[in-house]
Amino acid sequence: MIRTVITGSTGRMGSTLLRLARDAKDLQVVAATVRSGSPAAGQDAGLAARLGAALDVLLMDDLERALEFSKADVVVDFTGPEASLAHAKTCAARGVPLVVGSTGFSEEDTAKLRESARKVPIVAAPNMSVGVNLVIQMAAQLARVLGPSFDVEVLEAHHRMKKDAPSGTALKLAEVLAESLGRTRDDLTFVRDGQTGARPPGEIGVQALRGGDVVGEHTVYFFGDGERIELTHRATNRDQFAQGALRAARWVARRAPGLYDMADVLGLQGKT
Ligand SMILES: NC(=O)C1=CN([C@@H]2O[C@H](COP(=O)(O)OP(=O)(O)OC[C@H]3O[C@@H](n4cnc5c(N)ncnc54)[C@H](OP(=O)(O)O)[C@@H]3O)[C@@H](O)[C@H]2O)C=CC1
Ligand SMILES: O=C(O)C1=N[C@H](C(=O)O)C[C@H](O)C1
């Protein structure tokens, strides 16, 4: 049994992770945490996360304390950049492997995550769906083969509660596309407004829509002369993100320290 700790347990992803980890034969939820001072602390995690049954795990509001008593093999964290960085530090100090699904990290944040990953293995990826990770690979291949004569644009749509834009997945797609086309992050454009002039060659547009309960949709457009290719992934619930994260948890629990991503977990590394 892989002794698993879930953070942000009452969140959209936290509660999905709790449900799927509870139902997995090889995982045991040994602790679950919420934000410091949360009124949910002390309640049963299963009831607070609306799983329909008690989990016999009481929510704690301090990961440090949760790791002290739980003999955890792995922590799975979908909270937000600030909390994830703090949780990574705690895991590093305690020697516990970590899976981070949060998005919205700055370059400095990623450097801090890398620092924690010197002490423990960490898988961090903006999208843990196996399908999306294959779409990323396919987008890279299309860009390489089609080359600079096609104009590349990334469009994403998410629910109204999402805090960061563009999504971490859209950014990852744009970065991979730029790399495949011999471009850099400076070629990404996020805003078009006013007298923009003609589209500069090599530009990669990244646009975000927000509304309703959209779980997560990403399309890469390759606009050519006389033809257009559209590569789309649509998530219709959060289970595939959580299943991917639990797959990463099983994988990372047996790794050496280092910062890994889902391509490592899925054995896709080097093929973008
Ligand atoms: N990699 C992937 O596959 C996916 C990544 N994500 C990313 O995961 C993150 C979470 O998404 P989602 O579940 O929708 O968000 P939610 O807001 O529903 O959940 C976040 C949870 O984290 C808790 N939290 C926030 N700040 C802290 C803190 N400082 N300390 C402890 N707990 C904290 C929140 O508590 P409170 O409610 O009290 O604020 C909440 O319970 C986002 O960054 C999102 O982009 C989402 C889906 C898939
Ligand atoms: O916040 C979300 O919901 C999601 N965030 C991730 C991202 O920013 O890419 C992944 C997924 O699309 C859902």
Give short descriptive properties of this protein.
binds NADPH dihydro-nicotinamide-adenine-dinucleotide phosphate, 11 strands, binds the ligand O=C(O)C1=N[C@H](C(=O)O)C[C@H](O)C1, Dihydrodipicolinate Reductase, domain 2, 21% strand, five-stranded mixed beta sheet, alpha/beta, Rossmann fold, single chain, six-stranded parallel beta sheet
Give the neighbour order of strands across the main sheet.
2-1-3-4-5-11
The class by helix and strand makeup works out as: alpha/beta
Percent helix: 25-40%
Low-pLDDT runs: none
According to CATH, the homologous superfamily of the largest domain is: NAD(P)-binding Rossmann-like Domain
Roughly what is the average pLDDT, rounded to an integer?
97
**Number of self-contained structural domains:** 2
Describe the main β-sheet briefly. 6 strands, parallel
Number of helices: 9
CATH architecture of the largest domain: 3-Layer(aba) Sandwich
